[in-house]
Amino acid sequence: MKKFKPRNLLFFCIQIICFPIFVSAGLSVFAALLVALLIAGPVYFICVVLRLPQWLISKKKKDTDEIRQSRIEALDTAREIAQEGIVLLQNDAEVLPISKGTKLNVFGRCSIQSFYNGSGSAAADVTKCVPLISALEEFGKFELNRELLNLHKNYIQSGNASVADNGQEDVSVVKINKGGAEFLGKRPDLILEELPTDIFQRTDLFEDGRSMLDHAEAFSEYAVMVIGRGGAEGFELKADNLKLSIGEKKLLKALNQSFEKVILILNTPNPLELGELAEYPSVKGVVWMGMPGNTGFQALARILCGTVNPSGRLADTWVKDSFSAPAANNFQTLKSDGTWDEKSFHLENYKEKQGYFLQYSENIYVGYRYYETRALMDDRYSYEDEVMWPFGYGLSYTEFTQKITDFQETDGIIHLSVLVENTGEKVGKEVVQIYSRPPYTGRIEKSSVNLAAFEKTKMLAPGETTVVEFHIPVEELASFDCEQEKAYVLETGVYEIHLMKNAHESIEKRDWTLEEPLVYRMEKDGVRSTDRMVAVNRFDHAKTMGADLNRTWDQESPAFAGPPAACYHASEKTLQSLEGTVKTDAQAGYGASDLPQTGVKLPQKILYFEMQGVPYDDVKWDQFISQLTVGEMANLCGNGAWHTEKIKRLGIPKKLMPDGSTCICSTLFSGIVMSNAGEGVIYPCPVVLASTWNPEMGQAMGEAVGKEARSLGYHGWYAPAMNCHRTPFNARNFEYYSEDGVLAGKMAAQVVQGAQGQGIICFLKHFVLNERESSGRNQLLTYCNEQALREIYLKPFEIAVKEGGARGIMTSFNYIGDRWAGADEGLLEGVLRKEWGFQGVVSTDACVYPHMDVKKMLIAGGDLSLDSLGGFVGGNIKRVELLKAAKNPATKVIITKNLQRASKNILYAIALKLKED
User: Fold this and answer.
1) Per-residue pLDDT at 8
2) Residue 721 falls inside a structural domain
3) Is Hydrolase found in the keyword set (predicted)?
């Protein structure tokens, strides 16, 4: 008999209370009973199933001392990240820094209505973010043109052109200043229409008949213009959004005519096409800052006034035409009106609203790997015509020299020493960048420039020196040969190791020669030192159709010309895979005798607290898991939206896992499921963190996030987000780090270490090939050859698992070839667990779309269903599917065995202890 739960008394109590009231109101006994039932049901659902009262109470809960202290630390850390991640891109005639107290004219709608954060799963309340205007006044001590600010404010609020202070609210806290996270409408505002230039030129705003531009010119020789772009989950930036808008061009032209010192502030996570800046000679300074979060504008003000010397370096290549990148031709089809055709690349012989495909025909030539390789290898190519600022580029207010002082290879490790000296007149930090150039035989595609290692120096005073040491395993220079050896390979020849200012400018190099090839295959040179099992081909099902890009740079290649006609017709094998059934016991070779024991009553019950710190391979885990019933395991694995379920009888607590990327985030949806409205500080977007090129900043962010999460009652974090900036069109790029996997992986590994050291499980997402939002939830079949998959797209995850020790992974919505990523055994078991040695929990993304079969997930090596809809109905969706499958005679054994495996992975992951323990 099912045990009666005391909370169910609420249902009957509501009826008992309502029934006499309705009878006394004149209803018949039957009608009163019916109405009482109709009221009791929704109240019960809201109070017991949704737990809405708990969430509302948590919203009103006062901050504890621990919360306040963790928030102070988080705000400081966020500001430090911005200070080291903001990039000075142009500084003609040393227009920057500007002395404190200087008068400034600030132009641009985004100076008032800034993009602090993006929308979607990373969205958060931006109303507490420090506005640009406040930061300039407080931290830069700048005197701002108030009439100019009033003009912006008044026009934004009412559409009226007026320079008067209307006595409403301060310009720095305009109510509609919600940032990219809070705009309403069907499509988020990823770009805001600039104020009409003619309002700055009107002669009726002042009694003297002069224009706002005339007054601004008289007020100060400096004009600061802010240009912004937003970010959003589920959307792409339109191709034209990466160009200067008509309004921005008009305003820039006017400023160019009125001022000799124009400074652009780029409030955008995505690179813009700014080749046109050459037409505006008055633009002397350009500063990129991404999305600033809570305190990033304070960092910007400090940089503008010289309190802080900028030391950020670009994490992406900025080009003059985004369509010069081969990946752009396989993103979506561009319509004649400049918008994307969201029905691009659809399988013509499959369902109308499902079965889209994407070809990564550019091979490994993504970002700088394309531009730099082609510039070095193609005499016909003009690099300067296409690239604005290279990957790794950034300026400083001081000067540095770098020199290799020692270079040697011993026992498979390249040891490199670099002497850095501050030869300028101001204190500052320098980034040391090491790249490799492997020999090219034509057998394996190789970029001529590959980031191998990096480090940021400590603060150096003028004349001060420091030595930066690198120890690079030669195996990290290997390429993956997916055609012949089907393994990682180091071909014979000369490997050039370059010390570079950025991906384009080499300072000096040293050579390392390999006489005999190294093939990392068991029958040849064995496993790489960081792998548990040798890496082999696991994704032949994801090969692209047509030839992948190679160094011939053939313009007829699908990389430049788009997918060939054959791609639009799915093979019978692909169609069968898309409609595939769940593997049965018979197909797996299981018989009735293979059914594991469940719900075992041990002589001495093992409670969960006893499992903290127990090694993953310890037999005690098998004993502990055997105690779980099938129903408990189905609930644990199937009901995992922003939490893991508690099992009271074994002392297993409920663990809360908020979303994030830019912050600890409790949204309307996740907050209700968690019954927790606690929300953390918004950090500068991850691409800003990557642009610090300082792993210590990643560690600091992870620790601060971890402390904040603990103080708010959380135990996990759906972050960091690790996907690649394959193109600048993805509006979700603000959540991701870089176009380079080494930079992204090294930074994220430190974030993971910091957060997990505080007992907070990190879920790396979205595993893998989630570089486009459109159709991503409609069976998007993503094709990519195994070399590019391993060297570009898996690389940041690999580093964050191996070096960061991540205990959580979140898979992606898309398919890898014709297999859903969340149910790709080669990915989850082959690469992640067997090769990389991952020990932890693999979760789905929001498990609400038809192709996300939770049974396939479980059998392929997944563990947890992020059942976001089930979270609102007591978990009664995916857990029910698992329970039915575990009772089905055809799948009883395979599901039960995998429920035990998955339960162990979940419970091992959440048994994470604090670092100090």
Assistant:
1) 57
2) no
3) yes
